[in-house]
Write a structure and sequence with these properties.
Elements lengths: L6 H8 L6 H16 L1 H46 L12
């Protein structure tokens, strides 16, 4: 069996963003080793789970930032108009 994969190699593999000759060589080494080593495969699975959680958190933070921008817009632009009675009437569609 090959020498165990280092944490740095696993991290680079999981967070790989571009395909280059270097990352292809790393991918080959990691995948070959994971097929033979259950311990490293478990470490990889935990690291992939952490990566997925981090990406979900990043997406959620982006959604929250967008919602916060919208709330600021409502608070700064629409609420003053509403309280001043200057909001345009919304026409409701009737069936």
């Amino acid at each position: 069996m090959d020498e165990h994969i280092t944490f740095e190699e696993l991290t680079r593999f999981v967070w790989m963003e571009q395909v280059t000759p270097e990352t292809m060589a790393l991918s080959l080494r990691v995948n070959r080793h994971l097929m033979q080593c259950d311990d490293c495969a478990r470490r990889m699975a935990r690291l992939q789970s952490l990566h997925e959680d981090a990406m979900a958190l990043r997406r959620r933070r982006a959604q929250l930032a967008m919602a916060n921008r919208r709330m600021r817009e409502v608070n700064e632009e629409l609420l003053p108009k509403y309280y001043a009675g200057k909001m345009p009437k919304i026409e409701q569609e009737h069936d």
